[in-house]
Amino acid sequence: MARMIPPYISDDVKSSGEKIIFQLFENDPDTKDWVVLHSLSLSQHVSKVSGEIDFLVLAPNVGIFVLEVKSGRVEYKDGVWCYQNRYGEKFKCMRGPFKQAEEAMFSLQNHIRNKYGPNHHLSNLLFGYGVMFPHIAYKQYSIEYDHWCVFSRENARSKDGISQFIRNLSMQTKKKLAYRNIQKNLPSPKDIEKIVNLLRGDFQCAIKPKHLIEDVEAEIIKYTEEQCRALDSLEDNPRCFFRGGAGTGKTMIAMESAKRSAIRKQKTLFLCYNWPLANKLKRDLKGIENYVTVSHFHGFLSLLSENKISKLRKKKPNEYFNSRVYLQDDLPNFALESIWYGDFRPFDKIIIDEAQDLLKENYLDVVDALLDGGLAGGKWEMYGDFNQDLYIKQNEEVMLQLLEKRSNFTRCRLLKNCRNTKNICIQTSLLTRLELPEVLVRTNEMVDYYFYQNQEEHIQKVENVLYSLKEDEIPLHHITILSPRSWENSIVSKISQQRLPIVQLEKVDMNNLMNKLTFSTIHRFKGLENFYILICDIEQLTADYIRPILYVGMTRAKLKLDLFLNKNLEEERNKLLLDSLKGD
Protein backbone atom coordinates (compact mmCIF):
# COMPACT_ATOMS: atom_id res chain seq x y z
CA MET A 1 0.00 0.00 0.00
CA ALA A 2 1.45 3.35 -1.08
CA ARG A 3 2.00 6.22 1.31
CA MET A 4 -0.58 8.75 0.12
CA ILE A 5 -0.01 12.49 0.61
CA PRO A 6 -2.43 13.84 1.69
CA PRO A 7 -3.55 10.57 3.31
CA TYR A 8 -7.17 11.03 2.27
CA ILE A 9 -9.01 12.31 -0.78
CA SER A 10 -10.89 15.52 -0.05
CA ASP A 11 -14.66 15.71 -0.37
CA ASP A 12 -14.00 18.68 -2.67
CA VAL A 13 -12.71 16.23 -5.30
CA LYS A 14 -15.71 15.44 -7.51
CA SER A 15 -13.86 13.25 -10.02
CA SER A 16 -14.89 9.64 -9.49
CA GLY A 17 -11.88 8.66 -11.63
CA GLU A 18 -9.45 10.29 -9.20
CA LYS A 19 -11.17 8.49 -6.32
CA ILE A 20 -10.72 5.15 -8.11
CA ILE A 21 -7.02 5.78 -8.78
CA PHE A 22 -6.48 6.90 -5.18
CA GLN A 23 -8.01 3.65 -3.88
CA LEU A 24 -5.97 1.53 -6.30
CA PHE A 25 -2.70 3.01 -5.03
CA GLU A 26 -3.90 2.76 -1.43
CA ASN A 27 -4.81 -0.93 -1.72
CA ASP A 28 -2.19 -2.37 -4.11
CA PRO A 29 0.28 -4.42 -1.97
CA ASP A 30 3.05 -3.94 -4.57
CA THR A 31 3.12 -0.17 -3.94
CA LYS A 32 4.30 -0.65 -0.35
CA ASP A 33 7.40 1.61 -0.48
CA TRP A 34 5.97 4.15 -2.89
CA VAL A 35 4.94 7.73 -2.17
CA VAL A 36 2.01 9.15 -4.13
CA LEU A 37 1.18 12.86 -4.04
CA HIS A 38 -2.37 13.81 -4.99
CA SER A 39 -3.50 17.19 -6.42
CA LEU A 40 -0.02 18.72 -6.44
CA SER A 41 0.03 22.39 -7.45
CA LEU A 42 2.76 23.63 -9.82
CA SER A 43 3.67 27.30 -9.51
CA GLN A 44 6.19 27.19 -12.40
CA HIS A 45 4.27 25.53 -15.21
CA VAL A 46 5.96 25.50 -18.64
CA SER A 47 2.91 26.78 -20.55
CA LYS A 48 0.61 28.30 -17.90
CA VAL A 49 0.93 30.56 -14.88
CA SER A 50 0.14 27.56 -12.70
CA GLY A 51 -1.02 23.97 -13.04
CA GLU A 52 -1.88 20.84 -11.10
CA ILE A 53 -0.75 17.24 -11.19
CA ASP A 54 -3.54 14.77 -10.44
CA PHE A 55 -1.09 12.14 -9.12
CA LEU A 56 2.68 12.15 -8.79
CA VAL A 57 4.12 8.67 -8.19
CA LEU A 58 7.58 8.40 -6.60
CA ALA A 59 8.64 4.75 -6.62
CA PRO A 60 12.12 3.63 -5.42
CA ASN A 61 14.06 1.82 -8.15
CA VAL A 62 11.17 2.40 -10.57
CA GLY A 63 10.93 6.13 -11.31
CA ILE A 64 8.91 9.32 -10.93
CA PHE A 65 5.69 9.58 -12.91
CA VAL A 66 3.11 12.28 -13.54
CA LEU A 67 -0.42 10.90 -14.00
CA GLU A 68 -3.32 12.76 -15.56
CA VAL A 69 -6.77 11.30 -14.77
CA LYS A 70 -9.81 11.61 -17.03
CA SER A 71 -13.23 10.41 -15.85
CA GLY A 72 -16.23 9.43 -17.93
CA ARG A 73 -16.30 9.09 -21.72
CA VAL A 74 -13.47 10.43 -23.87
CA GLU A 75 -13.31 11.03 -27.65
CA TYR A 76 -10.49 12.35 -29.84
CA LYS A 77 -11.55 13.51 -33.30
CA ASP A 78 -9.99 15.91 -35.82
CA GLY A 79 -7.46 17.12 -33.25
CA VAL A 80 -10.14 17.95 -30.66
CA TRP A 81 -10.64 16.17 -27.34
CA CYS A 82 -14.20 15.75 -26.11
CA TYR A 83 -15.03 14.69 -22.53
CA GLN A 84 -18.44 13.65 -21.20
CA ASN A 85 -19.08 13.46 -17.44
CA ARG A 86 -21.57 11.29 -15.54
CA TYR A 87 -24.28 13.96 -15.96
CA GLY A 88 -24.01 13.83 -19.76
CA GLU A 89 -22.33 17.23 -19.99
CA LYS A 90 -19.71 17.55 -22.76
CA PHE A 91 -16.50 19.59 -22.81
CA LYS A 92 -14.15 20.19 -25.73
CA CYS A 93 -10.44 20.95 -25.53
CA MET A 94 -7.62 21.32 -28.06
CA ARG A 95 -4.97 20.47 -25.47
CA GLY A 96 -5.25 16.76 -24.73
CA PRO A 97 -4.48 14.84 -21.53
CA PHE A 98 -1.18 13.50 -22.88
CA LYS A 99 0.06 17.03 -23.55
CA GLN A 100 -1.14 18.09 -20.10
CA ALA A 101 0.74 15.24 -18.43
CA GLU A 102 3.91 15.81 -20.48
CA GLU A 103 3.97 19.56 -19.74
CA ALA A 104 3.41 18.91 -16.04
CA MET A 105 6.32 16.44 -16.08
CA PHE A 106 8.61 19.04 -17.72
CA SER A 107 7.49 21.67 -15.21
CA LEU A 108 8.37 19.35 -12.35
CA GLN A 109 11.78 18.54 -13.84
CA ASN A 110 12.49 22.27 -14.27
CA HIS A 111 11.52 22.90 -10.66
CA ILE A 112 14.02 20.28 -9.45
CA ARG A 113 16.78 21.55 -11.80
CA ASN A 114 16.25 25.12 -10.61
CA LYS A 115 16.59 23.96 -7.02
CA TYR A 116 19.62 21.64 -7.34
CA GLY A 117 21.25 22.57 -10.66
CA PRO A 118 21.30 20.65 -13.99
CA ASN A 119 24.18 18.35 -13.04
CA HIS A 120 22.81 17.26 -9.68
CA HIS A 121 21.92 13.60 -9.21
CA LEU A 122 18.25 14.46 -8.52
CA SER A 123 18.01 16.39 -11.78
CA ASN A 124 18.88 13.26 -13.75
CA LEU A 125 16.39 10.75 -12.42
CA LEU A 126 13.94 8.81 -14.57
CA PHE A 127 10.75 10.83 -15.14
CA GLY A 128 7.73 9.73 -17.13
CA TYR A 129 4.02 10.33 -17.50
CA GLY A 130 0.79 8.44 -18.07
CA VAL A 131 -2.89 9.13 -18.66
CA MET A 132 -5.55 7.27 -16.70
CA PHE A 133 -8.99 6.39 -18.09
CA PRO A 134 -10.39 4.20 -15.25
CA HIS A 135 -13.97 4.17 -16.63
CA ILE A 136 -13.39 3.17 -20.26
CA ALA A 137 -11.58 0.65 -22.43
CA TYR A 138 -9.45 3.19 -24.30
CA LYS A 139 -8.62 2.09 -27.86
CA GLN A 140 -7.98 5.39 -29.69
CA TYR A 141 -4.24 5.23 -30.20
CA SER A 142 -2.34 7.93 -32.09
CA ILE A 143 1.18 8.71 -33.31
CA GLU A 144 1.04 11.75 -30.97
CA TYR A 145 1.53 9.56 -27.89
CA ASP A 146 2.72 6.09 -26.89
CA HIS A 147 0.02 3.48 -26.30
CA TRP A 148 1.84 2.17 -23.22
CA CYS A 149 1.16 5.52 -21.50
CA VAL A 150 -2.52 4.61 -21.28
CA PHE A 151 -4.19 3.10 -18.20
CA SER A 152 -7.76 1.96 -18.84
CA ARG A 153 -10.62 0.05 -17.24
CA GLU A 154 -8.93 -3.32 -17.86
CA ASN A 155 -5.95 -2.25 -15.75
CA ALA A 156 -8.23 -0.95 -12.99
CA ARG A 157 -9.96 -4.32 -12.65
CA SER A 158 -6.75 -6.12 -11.64
CA LYS A 159 -5.72 -6.01 -7.96
CA ASP A 160 -2.12 -5.16 -8.93
CA GLY A 161 -3.04 -3.34 -12.14
CA ILE A 162 -1.79 0.05 -10.99
CA SER A 163 1.64 -1.18 -9.85
CA GLN A 164 2.09 -3.24 -13.02
CA PHE A 165 1.16 -0.23 -15.14
CA ILE A 166 3.75 1.98 -13.39
CA ARG A 167 6.48 -0.68 -13.70
CA ASN A 168 5.73 -1.06 -17.41
CA LEU A 169 5.73 2.73 -17.75
CA SER A 170 9.23 2.71 -16.23
CA MET A 171 10.49 -0.01 -18.56
CA GLN A 172 9.06 1.59 -21.71
CA THR A 173 10.28 5.08 -20.77
CA LYS A 174 13.82 3.72 -20.26
CA LYS A 175 13.68 2.02 -23.68
CA LYS A 176 12.47 5.22 -25.34
CA LEU A 177 15.24 7.29 -23.75
CA ALA A 178 17.88 4.66 -24.52
CA TYR A 179 16.88 4.84 -28.20
CA ARG A 180 17.87 8.52 -28.00
CA ASN A 181 21.07 7.65 -26.10
CA ILE A 182 19.76 9.28 -22.92
CA GLN A 183 20.64 7.62 -19.62
CA LYS A 184 18.62 8.31 -16.49
CA ASN A 185 19.06 7.04 -12.93
CA LEU A 186 16.42 5.19 -10.95
CA PRO A 187 15.58 6.94 -7.67
CA SER A 188 16.66 5.45 -4.36
CA PRO A 189 14.47 5.66 -1.23
CA LYS A 190 16.63 8.62 -0.08
CA ASP A 191 16.10 10.37 -3.42
CA ILE A 192 12.36 9.92 -3.02
CA GLU A 193 12.38 11.44 0.46
CA LYS A 194 14.42 14.45 -0.73
CA ILE A 195 12.00 15.17 -3.55
CA VAL A 196 8.98 14.69 -1.29
CA ASN A 197 10.48 17.13 1.22
CA LEU A 198 11.17 19.62 -1.58
CA LEU A 199 7.62 19.44 -2.90
CA ARG A 200 5.91 19.30 0.46
CA GLY A 201 6.75 22.92 1.34
CA ASP A 202 4.14 24.31 -1.04
CA PHE A 203 2.06 21.19 -0.87
CA GLN A 204 1.50 21.32 2.87
CA CYS A 205 -0.19 24.68 2.52
CA ALA A 206 -3.19 22.64 1.44
CA ILE A 207 -2.91 20.02 4.19
CA LYS A 208 -1.90 21.83 7.35
CA PRO A 209 -2.38 19.62 10.42
CA LYS A 210 -5.12 22.00 11.53
CA HIS A 211 -7.08 21.22 8.37
CA LEU A 212 -6.35 17.51 8.65
CA ILE A 213 -7.67 17.56 12.23
CA GLU A 214 -10.82 19.36 11.07
CA ASP A 215 -11.39 16.91 8.22
CA VAL A 216 -10.87 13.84 10.41
CA GLU A 217 -13.18 15.25 13.09
CA ALA A 218 -15.86 15.90 10.46
CA GLU A 219 -15.52 12.30 9.24
CA ILE A 220 -15.77 10.92 12.79
CA ILE A 221 -18.93 12.93 13.47
CA LYS A 222 -20.43 11.88 10.13
CA TYR A 223 -19.79 8.18 10.70
CA THR A 224 -20.93 8.31 14.32
CA GLU A 225 -24.18 9.95 13.23
CA GLU A 226 -24.65 6.97 10.92
CA GLN A 227 -24.07 4.66 13.89
CA CYS A 228 -26.77 6.56 15.78
CA ARG A 229 -29.30 5.00 13.43
CA ALA A 230 -28.98 1.99 15.72
CA LEU A 231 -31.08 3.98 18.20
CA ASP A 232 -33.78 4.55 15.59
CA SER A 233 -34.11 0.84 14.90
CA LEU A 234 -34.32 0.05 18.62
CA GLU A 235 -36.85 2.71 19.65
CA ASP A 236 -39.42 0.09 20.63
CA ASN A 237 -36.99 -1.86 22.83
CA PRO A 238 -37.00 -0.51 26.40
CA ARG A 239 -33.83 -2.39 27.40
CA CYS A 240 -30.75 -2.80 25.22
CA PHE A 241 -27.08 -3.71 25.61
CA PHE A 242 -24.83 -2.14 22.95
CA ARG A 243 -21.56 -4.00 22.39
CA GLY A 244 -18.81 -2.55 20.25
CA GLY A 245 -15.05 -2.35 20.07
CA ALA A 246 -13.07 0.80 20.71
CA GLY A 247 -13.99 3.65 18.40
CA THR A 248 -17.45 2.38 17.41
CA GLY A 249 -19.18 5.48 18.78
CA LYS A 250 -20.67 4.00 21.96
CA THR A 251 -20.32 7.17 24.03
CA MET A 252 -21.66 9.45 21.30
CA ILE A 253 -24.65 7.16 20.74
CA ALA A 254 -25.28 7.14 24.50
CA MET A 255 -25.15 10.97 24.47
CA GLU A 256 -27.64 11.09 21.59
CA SER A 257 -29.94 8.80 23.59
CA ALA A 258 -29.66 11.14 26.59
CA LYS A 259 -30.63 14.12 24.42
CA ARG A 260 -33.66 12.25 23.10
CA SER A 261 -34.67 11.38 26.67
CA ALA A 262 -34.50 15.07 27.61
CA ILE A 263 -36.74 15.99 24.66
CA ARG A 264 -39.28 13.43 25.96
CA LYS A 265 -38.90 14.92 29.46
CA GLN A 266 -37.80 11.59 30.93
CA LYS A 267 -35.91 11.82 34.21
CA THR A 268 -32.69 10.08 33.15
CA LEU A 269 -29.51 9.02 34.94
CA PHE A 270 -26.39 8.80 32.75
CA LEU A 271 -23.62 6.85 34.51
CA CYS A 272 -20.09 5.85 33.53
CA TYR A 273 -17.12 4.45 35.46
CA ASN A 274 -14.37 7.05 34.92
CA TRP A 275 -14.78 10.50 36.44
CA PRO A 276 -12.81 12.35 33.69
CA LEU A 277 -15.27 10.92 31.17
CA ALA A 278 -18.18 11.98 33.39
CA ASN A 279 -16.80 15.54 33.51
CA LYS A 280 -16.57 15.63 29.72
CA LEU A 281 -20.10 14.27 29.37
CA LYS A 282 -21.42 16.96 31.71
CA ARG A 283 -19.78 19.61 29.55
CA ASP A 284 -21.03 18.11 26.28
CA LEU A 285 -24.59 17.66 27.60
CA LYS A 286 -24.84 21.10 29.15
CA GLY A 287 -28.35 22.50 28.89
CA ILE A 288 -30.34 19.34 29.60
CA GLU A 289 -29.49 19.06 33.31
CA ASN A 290 -33.16 19.48 34.27
CA TYR A 291 -33.86 16.03 32.86
CA VAL A 292 -30.50 14.25 32.59
CA THR A 293 -28.18 13.69 35.58
CA VAL A 294 -24.62 12.80 34.55
CA SER A 295 -22.16 11.24 37.00
CA HIS A 296 -19.49 8.63 37.39
CA PHE A 297 -20.83 5.63 39.27
CA HIS A 298 -18.97 5.94 42.57
CA GLY A 299 -19.48 9.71 42.60
CA PHE A 300 -23.25 9.28 42.40
CA LEU A 301 -23.21 6.62 45.11
CA SER A 302 -21.19 8.99 47.30
CA LEU A 303 -23.78 11.71 46.73
CA LEU A 304 -26.56 9.34 47.79
CA SER A 305 -24.61 8.30 50.89
CA GLU A 306 -23.15 11.68 51.93
CA ASN A 307 -24.68 11.63 55.43
CA LYS A 308 -23.26 8.18 56.18
CA ILE A 309 -19.88 9.09 54.65
CA SER A 310 -19.55 12.35 56.61
CA LYS A 311 -19.93 10.40 59.86
CA LEU A 312 -17.42 7.76 58.73
CA ARG A 313 -14.78 10.39 57.90
CA LYS A 314 -14.49 11.10 61.63
CA LYS A 315 -13.75 7.44 62.35
CA LYS A 316 -11.93 6.03 59.29
CA PRO A 317 -8.50 6.92 57.87
CA ASN A 318 -8.32 8.50 54.39
CA GLU A 319 -6.86 5.27 52.96
CA TYR A 320 -10.15 3.52 53.64
CA PHE A 321 -12.05 5.75 51.18
CA ASN A 322 -9.74 4.70 48.34
CA SER A 323 -9.74 1.02 49.24
CA ARG A 324 -11.38 -1.83 47.31
CA VAL A 325 -13.45 -2.73 50.37
CA TYR A 326 -14.99 0.74 50.44
CA LEU A 327 -15.48 1.24 46.68
CA GLN A 328 -16.61 -2.26 45.74
CA ASP A 329 -18.48 -3.39 48.87
CA ASP A 330 -19.30 -0.77 51.49
CA LEU A 331 -20.22 2.19 49.26
CA PRO A 332 -22.80 0.23 47.21
CA ASN A 333 -24.36 -0.98 50.48
CA PHE A 334 -24.49 2.58 51.87
CA ALA A 335 -26.17 3.75 48.64
CA LEU A 336 -28.78 0.99 48.82
CA GLU A 337 -29.63 1.94 52.40
CA SER A 338 -30.08 5.58 51.34
CA ILE A 339 -32.36 4.58 48.46
CA TRP A 340 -34.47 2.21 50.56
CA TYR A 341 -34.81 4.33 53.67
CA GLY A 342 -34.55 7.83 52.22
CA ASP A 343 -36.85 10.07 50.20
CA PHE A 344 -35.73 8.85 46.77
CA ARG A 345 -37.66 8.99 43.50
CA PRO A 346 -36.48 6.41 40.93
CA PHE A 347 -35.33 7.48 37.47
CA ASP A 348 -37.47 6.93 34.37
CA LYS A 349 -34.45 5.72 32.43
CA ILE A 350 -30.80 4.82 33.07
CA ILE A 351 -27.97 4.99 30.52
CA ILE A 352 -24.66 3.34 31.43
CA ASP A 353 -21.43 3.83 29.47
CA GLU A 354 -18.34 1.68 30.23
CA ALA A 355 -20.77 -1.04 31.30
CA GLN A 356 -18.01 -3.68 31.28
CA ASP A 357 -16.63 -2.03 34.44
CA LEU A 358 -19.95 -2.06 36.28
CA LEU A 359 -21.35 -5.56 35.72
CA LYS A 360 -20.91 -6.70 39.32
CA GLU A 361 -23.69 -8.24 41.40
CA ASN A 362 -23.79 -5.53 44.07
CA TYR A 363 -23.39 -2.70 41.50
CA LEU A 364 -26.38 -4.09 39.62
CA ASP A 365 -28.34 -4.19 42.89
CA VAL A 366 -27.87 -0.41 43.12
CA VAL A 367 -28.82 0.21 39.47
CA ASP A 368 -31.91 -1.96 39.97
CA ALA A 369 -32.97 0.15 42.95
CA LEU A 370 -32.34 3.44 41.11
CA LEU A 371 -34.60 2.61 38.17
CA ASP A 372 -38.38 2.82 38.02
CA GLY A 373 -39.44 -0.75 37.24
CA GLY A 374 -35.96 -2.05 38.05
CA LEU A 375 -33.68 -3.79 35.59
CA ALA A 376 -36.42 -6.30 34.79
CA GLY A 377 -39.15 -3.84 33.82
CA GLY A 378 -37.56 -0.40 33.51
CA LYS A 379 -35.99 1.49 30.61
CA TRP A 380 -32.23 1.19 30.35
CA GLU A 381 -29.35 1.13 27.91
CA MET A 382 -25.83 -0.12 28.52
CA TYR A 383 -22.79 0.39 26.31
CA GLY A 384 -19.73 -1.80 26.70
CA ASP A 385 -16.51 -3.14 25.22
CA PHE A 386 -15.25 -6.18 27.10
CA ASN A 387 -11.75 -5.72 25.66
CA GLN A 388 -11.58 -2.60 27.86
CA ASP A 389 -12.31 -4.44 31.11
CA LEU A 390 -9.54 -2.97 33.29
CA TYR A 391 -11.21 -3.43 36.68
CA ILE A 392 -13.55 -6.41 37.10
CA LYS A 393 -11.41 -8.72 34.89
CA GLN A 394 -14.13 -11.28 34.41
CA ASN A 395 -15.20 -13.30 31.37
CA GLU A 396 -17.67 -11.30 29.26
CA GLU A 397 -20.26 -14.08 29.09
CA VAL A 398 -20.16 -14.46 32.87
CA MET A 399 -20.80 -10.71 33.23
CA LEU A 400 -23.65 -10.74 30.73
CA GLN A 401 -25.21 -13.72 32.50
CA LEU A 402 -25.46 -11.58 35.65
CA LEU A 403 -27.59 -9.19 33.64
CA GLU A 404 -29.59 -11.92 31.90
CA LYS A 405 -30.63 -13.36 35.27
CA ARG A 406 -32.28 -10.04 36.09
CA SER A 407 -33.74 -8.91 32.79
CA ASN A 408 -34.74 -9.66 29.21
CA PHE A 409 -33.04 -7.24 26.84
CA THR A 410 -32.08 -6.70 23.22
CA ARG A 411 -28.45 -6.95 22.15
CA CYS A 412 -27.03 -4.63 19.52
CA ARG A 413 -23.55 -4.97 18.02
CA LEU A 414 -21.71 -1.92 16.70
CA LEU A 415 -19.40 -3.21 13.98
CA LYS A 416 -17.73 -0.13 12.47
CA ASN A 417 -14.86 1.86 13.95
CA CYS A 418 -15.50 5.54 13.25
CA ARG A 419 -12.66 7.00 15.37
CA ASN A 420 -9.32 5.30 14.70
CA THR A 421 -7.37 5.27 11.46
CA LYS A 422 -6.57 2.03 9.65
CA ASN A 423 -2.92 2.04 10.74
CA ILE A 424 -3.83 2.62 14.39
CA CYS A 425 -6.22 -0.34 14.27
CA ILE A 426 -3.66 -2.57 12.54
CA GLN A 427 -0.96 -1.82 15.11
CA THR A 428 -3.39 -2.19 18.02
CA SER A 429 -4.45 -5.62 16.79
CA LEU A 430 -0.80 -6.53 16.25
CA LEU A 431 0.32 -5.70 19.80
CA THR A 432 -2.78 -6.82 21.70
CA ARG A 433 -3.89 -9.78 19.54
CA LEU A 434 -7.42 -8.35 19.79
CA GLU A 435 -9.57 -7.88 16.71
CA LEU A 436 -10.91 -4.41 15.93
CA PRO A 437 -14.02 -3.52 13.90
CA GLU A 438 -14.08 -2.37 10.28
CA VAL A 439 -12.37 1.02 9.90
CA LEU A 440 -14.12 3.99 8.29
CA VAL A 441 -11.80 6.98 8.88
CA ARG A 442 -9.62 7.67 5.84
CA THR A 443 -6.10 8.77 6.67
CA ASN A 444 -2.74 7.03 6.46
CA GLU A 445 -0.86 8.73 9.28
CA MET A 446 1.69 6.16 10.43
CA VAL A 447 2.04 4.68 13.92
CA ASP A 448 5.62 5.35 15.01
CA TYR A 449 7.66 3.26 17.46
CA TYR A 450 10.55 4.70 19.48
CA PHE A 451 12.83 2.34 21.41
CA TYR A 452 14.84 3.64 24.37
CA GLN A 453 17.77 2.08 26.25
CA ASN A 454 17.62 4.22 29.37
CA GLN A 455 15.62 6.94 31.06
CA GLU A 456 17.59 9.81 29.51
CA GLU A 457 17.04 8.49 25.99
CA HIS A 458 13.37 7.90 26.78
CA ILE A 459 12.91 11.52 27.89
CA GLN A 460 14.86 12.84 24.90
CA LYS A 461 12.76 10.91 22.38
CA VAL A 462 9.49 12.04 23.93
CA GLU A 463 10.70 15.66 23.94
CA ASN A 464 11.77 15.41 20.29
CA VAL A 465 8.31 14.24 19.23
CA LEU A 466 6.64 17.00 21.25
CA TYR A 467 8.91 19.68 19.76
CA SER A 468 8.18 18.32 16.29
CA LEU A 469 4.43 18.57 16.91
CA LYS A 470 4.87 22.15 18.15
CA GLU A 471 6.83 23.01 15.00
CA ASP A 472 3.94 21.61 12.95
CA GLU A 473 1.70 24.05 14.86
CA ILE A 474 -0.42 21.31 16.40
CA PRO A 475 -2.58 22.95 19.10
CA LEU A 476 -1.35 21.61 22.45
CA HIS A 477 -4.83 20.61 23.62
CA HIS A 478 -4.94 18.12 20.74
CA ILE A 479 -1.99 16.22 22.28
CA THR A 480 -2.19 13.83 25.25
CA ILE A 481 0.62 11.75 26.77
CA LEU A 482 -0.54 8.46 28.29
CA SER A 483 1.23 5.98 30.53
CA PRO A 484 0.38 2.75 32.34
CA ARG A 485 2.11 4.44 35.30
CA SER A 486 1.08 7.30 37.56
CA TRP A 487 2.60 10.77 37.07
CA GLU A 488 5.10 10.24 39.88
CA ASN A 489 6.36 6.98 38.38
CA SER A 490 6.35 8.07 34.74
CA ILE A 491 9.30 9.62 32.90
CA VAL A 492 6.90 12.38 31.84
CA SER A 493 7.22 13.94 35.31
CA LYS A 494 10.95 14.35 34.62
CA ILE A 495 10.50 16.37 31.41
CA SER A 496 11.49 20.01 31.90
CA GLN A 497 8.30 21.87 32.78
CA GLN A 498 9.85 25.18 31.75
CA ARG A 499 10.37 24.09 28.17
CA LEU A 500 7.32 21.84 27.87
CA PRO A 501 4.65 22.54 30.51
CA ILE A 502 2.54 19.40 30.90
CA VAL A 503 -0.60 19.35 33.05
CA GLN A 504 -2.05 16.31 34.75
CA LEU A 505 -5.57 15.72 33.48
CA GLU A 506 -6.91 15.02 36.96
CA LYS A 507 -5.64 18.40 38.21
CA VAL A 508 -7.04 20.62 35.47
CA ASP A 509 -10.54 21.91 34.73
CA MET A 510 -11.88 19.84 31.82
CA ASN A 511 -13.66 22.99 30.58
CA ASN A 512 -10.37 24.87 30.34
CA LEU A 513 -7.99 22.64 28.35
CA MET A 514 -7.30 25.10 25.53
CA ASN A 515 -3.57 25.10 24.63
CA LYS A 516 -2.73 22.70 27.46
CA LEU A 517 -0.57 19.63 26.84
CA THR A 518 -2.09 16.91 29.03
CA PHE A 519 -0.87 13.76 30.79
CA SER A 520 -3.03 10.93 32.08
CA THR A 521 -2.75 7.33 33.11
CA ILE A 522 -4.29 5.02 30.53
CA HIS A 523 -6.85 3.88 33.11
CA ARG A 524 -8.06 7.45 33.74
CA PHE A 525 -8.25 8.24 30.02
CA LYS A 526 -10.53 5.32 29.20
CA GLY A 527 -13.59 6.60 27.37
CA LEU A 528 -11.77 9.76 26.23
CA GLU A 529 -9.85 10.50 23.04
CA ASN A 530 -7.52 12.98 21.37
CA PHE A 531 -6.01 13.54 17.94
CA TYR A 532 -2.37 12.95 18.94
CA ILE A 533 -1.55 10.29 21.53
CA LEU A 534 1.92 9.46 22.87
CA ILE A 535 2.19 6.34 25.06
CA CYS A 536 5.29 6.18 27.27
CA ASP A 537 6.79 3.77 29.81
CA ILE A 538 6.00 0.58 27.88
CA GLU A 539 8.09 -2.10 29.58
CA GLN A 540 5.99 -5.16 28.73
CA LEU A 541 4.19 -6.46 25.63
CA THR A 542 3.14 -10.06 26.10
CA ALA A 543 1.97 -10.26 29.72
CA ASP A 544 -1.80 -10.78 29.98
CA TYR A 545 -2.32 -7.68 32.13
CA ILE A 546 -0.80 -5.29 29.57
CA ARG A 547 -3.00 -6.28 26.61
CA PRO A 548 -6.22 -4.51 27.67
CA ILE A 549 -4.17 -1.53 28.89
CA LEU A 550 -2.44 -1.13 25.51
CA TYR A 551 -5.75 -1.71 23.74
CA VAL A 552 -7.37 1.13 25.67
CA GLY A 553 -4.36 3.45 25.30
CA MET A 554 -3.73 2.93 21.59
CA THR A 555 -7.38 3.29 20.61
CA ARG A 556 -7.60 6.75 22.21
CA ALA A 557 -5.82 8.24 19.15
CA LYS A 558 -7.98 9.76 16.44
CA LEU A 559 -5.19 10.75 14.05
CA LYS A 560 -1.61 9.98 15.15
CA LEU A 561 -0.12 7.49 17.61
CA ASP A 562 3.46 7.32 18.94
CA LEU A 563 4.68 4.48 21.16
CA PHE A 564 7.79 4.55 23.36
CA LEU A 565 9.07 1.07 24.27
CA ASN A 566 12.03 -0.35 26.11
CA LYS A 567 14.74 -1.44 23.65
CA ASN A 568 14.46 -4.97 25.11
CA LEU A 569 11.00 -5.23 23.55
CA GLU A 570 12.09 -4.57 19.96
CA GLU A 571 12.63 -8.25 19.14
CA GLU A 572 9.34 -9.12 20.84
CA ARG A 573 7.50 -6.48 18.80
CA ASN A 574 9.08 -7.77 15.58
CA LYS A 575 8.03 -11.32 16.44
CA LEU A 576 4.44 -10.16 16.94
CA LEU A 577 4.62 -8.53 13.52
CA LEU A 578 5.95 -11.71 11.88
CA ASP A 579 3.35 -13.87 13.62
CA SER A 580 0.67 -11.53 12.33
CA LEU A 581 1.97 -11.76 8.76
CA LYS A 582 2.06 -15.57 8.98
CA GLY A 583 -1.52 -15.48 10.20
CA ASP A 584 -2.50 -13.51 7.09
TrEMBL record:
Positions of the UvrD-like helicase C-terminal domain: 518-561
InterPro entries: DNA_helicase_UvrD/REP, NERD, P-loop_NTPase, SLFN_3-like_DNA/RNA_helicase, UvrD-like_helicase_C
Domain Schlafen group 3-like DNA/RNA helicase stretches: 240-360
Residue ranges of domain NERD in the record: 16-121
GO biological process: recombinational repair
Pfam families, alphabetized: NERD (PF08378), SLFN-g3_helicase (PF09848), UvrD_C_2 (PF13538)
Coiled-coil positions: none
GO molecular function, one term: DNA binding
Alphabetical list of PANTHER family matching this protein: ATP-DEPENDENT DNA HELICASE SRS2 (PTHR11070:SF2), UVRD / RECB / PCRA DNA HELICASE FAMILY MEMBER (PTHR11070)
Protein name: DNA helicase
